[in-house]
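We modelled the chain as a single entity of 97 amino acids. Its sequence is:
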Amino acid sequence: MNSANQIKPRFLLGQVVATPAALEVLELSGQQPMELLQRHVVLDPGELCGEDQQTNLDAVKNGGRIFSSYLLNDVTKIWIITEADRSATTLLLPDEY
């Protein structure tokens, strides 16, 4: 997403970690974790419904957990979760949650 580079981050990521499976699907799709993290930190809605988008907006204001769901180039779904205390952000596959 080109506009993600032009929007300021909305929250801190903390320590960024990824599961081995998430790293594998990223590599297979030819994508970098930073691409998705840049979308996550500006609240790019990705695959989220309106209710989940609103939950993220509320979480930025009130310190809750922030959740993103994106489809990779090969249509594999990947999730990104930033903890409520902003200590860590994890890239993972939905079945690893």
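As a brief sanity check on the tokenised model: The beta strands are 15-18, 66-71, 77-82, 88-92. The helical segments are 20-29, 33-41, 50-62.
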